[in-house]
Model the fold of this input.
Amino acid sequence: MSERTSAATTTFATPSDREITMTRVFDAPRELVFAAHTDAQHVQNWWGQRNSTTIVDVLDVRPGGAWRFVQRDPEGNEYGFRGEFREVVPPERLVYTFEFEGMPGHIVVDTITFEEHDGKTTILSTSLFESVEDRDGMLESGMESGATESWDRLAELLDRLSAK
Amino acid sequence: MANDHLSTTFAALADPTRRAILARLAQGEATVNELAEPFALSLPTVSKHLKVLQRAGLVSQGRKAQWRPCRLEAAPLHEVANWMEDYRQFWDESFDRLDDYLHELQVQAQGHEKGKEHTRERED
Done:
């Protein structure tokens, strides 16, 4: 195991001020990488921070099915994460919501695609940040003109802020 | 409290007109009239959006009665940027762990295969 020279890194990009994309190549067939996301036995072995234990409370992988994981840190504090699957296409695609119970109403929609080339699997994950109002369509939609440009400018502003 | 604040910021950012208003204010102070102009919006509509932005702490308005310029307040955007950074770190670490774990699984599977070969050899 020690001779392993994995130089794999996660590539991040922020196409807009509410979106993060993450790309990562794994040296494994995509059936296995997909299973690592959908099988509770697997999930508890990698999901979350290294110094914490992950408990898979619910993992109902089907459209409309719920998931809930709990992270327990070394001090015994527990942090719950939950969401709902929106699309399940084994072993190609998963769409689900992600919500930290410590910040309710603050929802991320994750779309993950799994692509295999030469026995390696590329994960492309897009996280879109939504609010409850957003999700439930409670916000009146504004003017669309000039909206795209303002996304870009606001994204630049956020970039400058996070660079500080 | 900070968490609720973050949700309010996200809700405020969810609307394209409000994002456009923020982008305009990122270039400098502006009056409500000036903000309404490029969007061909009525003043009450702009005022409504400004109220949402003010509640989220993203915009403040001067007290000078006749002019009352609007100003961008960047602090809540900092919070959003920080939250996104935490989220990114969470996944970076998880993906590193997944990489290790997938490797382990495949080594184990190979071990199993070899084990089977050994058994077969012994059977032969």
